[in-house]
Design brief:
Blueprint lengths: L1 E8 L5 H19 L2 E8 L5 E3 L6 H5 L3 H7 L3 E5 L3 E6 L6 E6 L1 E4 L10 H9 L8 H7 L2 H8 L8 E5 H6 L1 H11 L4 E5 L9 E3 L5 H11 L2 E6 L4 E10 L4 E2 L15 H5 L27 H17 L4 E10 L4 E8 L7 H7 L3 H20 L14
Parallel strand pairs: 1-2, 1-7
Antiparallel strand pairs: 2-3, 4-5, 5-6, 8-11, 9-10, 9-11, 12-13, 12-14, 14-15
Helix pairs in contact: 1-13
Length: about 375
């Protein structure tokens, strides 16, 4: 029986979303499969690591007791020695608990996890892990870099971007540049965050400066991009390595005028307690599959699969698209390399259960690791003999 370490939490604005993804969408189905021993590794909001069976209980976090728990709990250490081993000191002096990990299942969202940082650690440890690799994760989580990488390959919306240091030197110059080069309305976004945190829809130039300042409160780089007229939003979960498999195109909004913020996405019932209409999706606001013409469906699916392949995604990711319903132009919006809840609701609609989903992702992780292990990473030379 393989031992799977699920890592979640972290120093991220999406910490709480990560906890729910880990416990409800990964740990539970992995254990229900009966094929794996699952170890829960929780990273606190201040960056400390913990390993304990009690960390699998959502009530620990819901009640707020997690703070008291980690105050008393022993921190976990990672041993990189022919793979990954968890090490935890027991309450008895001199005694330690060890657990060798076969596969890591990251459930991290946002910074210090989903952005490739955690994947780099796992690569160095030499352990298989679920999801996108270091490079694809880093590119996907930088909205600007992803668009710059893909703009010659797929249609993207017009954009401008700036770092916090550049903006502090010439805020007026940047806002003037945006007003001159982009058509309103625009969206202002933190470059590296997900879950719609810090995003503002700006309908006229008067609101631009404040929106940029809000985004820079969460990130050191901000993206401003034109809104797509006659908008249809689409999202497509995809899994696999060399031959990726699409789930179903999902239409996250019931009306083009709606703005998809954090509260609407994750808080029960949406804004003011009113849920979105349409087929129940991850939070009850989506239509699955999207109700669009078949030719547009195929076009959008093809764009999403091209994005997945060109960015070198593996394991699982979700590609978000924007469509002008009058021209049928499909634009790439962004990639989420660790979809919240793995978008299990969509895969279920595709006919893949939550248990089958996490099992397939473990298989993809092992497959990619085996393929990479065949590569030669050393090279013999006489270089050192000259010193």
């Amino acid at each position: 029986m393989k031992t799977i370490a699920v890592i979640f939490g972290g120093k991220s604005t999406e910490h709480d979303v990560s906890v729910v993804t880990a416990i409800a969408s990964i740990i539970k189905p992995l254990e229900l499969s009966g094929n794996f021993k699952v170890e829960a590794i929780y990273i606190s909001k201040d960056g400390r690591w913990f390993w304990d069976e009690k960390l699998k209980d959502i009530s620990l976090y819901r009640s707020g007791d997690i703070d008291e728990f980690i105050r008393k709990a022993a921190k976990v250490h990672l041993l990189f020695d022919d793979g990954l081993t968890l090490v935890k000191s027991s309450q008895f002096a001199g005694r330690k608990q060890y657990k060798k990990i076969d596969v890591v299942f990251p459930a991290m969202h946002g910074t210090h996890g989903e952005d490739g940082e955690l994947m780099g650690i796992l690569e160095m440890a030499g352990v298989p892990y679920v999801g996108c690799g270091v490079a694809s994760s880093a590119i996907a989580m930088d909205k600007v870099l992803a668009k710059l990488t893909l703009e010659s390959l797929v249609p993207t919306t017009k954009m401008q971007y700036i770092t916090s240091s550049e903006f502090s030197k010439d805020a007026a110059g940047f806002t003037s540049h945006v007003i001159k080069n982009l058509n309103f309305p625009v969206f202002v976004k933190p470059t590296h965050l997900g879950s719609s945190i810090g995003i503002t829809q700006v309908k006229d130039p008067d609101g631009l400066l404040n929106a940029i300042e809000v985004a820079l409160h969460y990130d050191d780089k901000v993206l401003v991009e034109e809104a797509v007229p006659n908008l249809i939003e689409l999202t497509l979960p995809i899994m696999g390595n060399e031959e990726p498999i699409p789930a179903l195109l999902e239409q996250p909004l019931s009306k083009a005028a709606d703005f998809f913020d954090f509260e609407t996405k994750y808080m029960q019932g949406g804004k003011k307690g009113k849920g979105k209409s349409g087929t129940k999706g991850s939070q009850g606001y989506s239509t699955i599959p999207a109700k669009i013409p078949q030719d547009l469906y195929q076009k959008a699916e093809a764009v999403a699969l091209k994005v997945y392949k060109e960015l070198g995604c593996s394991g699982i990711a979700r590609v978000d698209l924007l469509v002008n319903s009058k021209t049928n132009q499909v634009y790439f919006n962004e990639v989420n390399p660790m979809p919240g809840g793995l978008y299990a609701h969509n895969w279920r609609a595709k006919g893949i259960s939550s248990i089958d989903l996490v099992t397939k992702l473990i298989d993809y992780a092992q497959q990619r690791f085996n393929n990479q292990s065949r590569l030669n990473t050393t090279f013999s030379t006489n270089y050192l003999k000259q010193f």
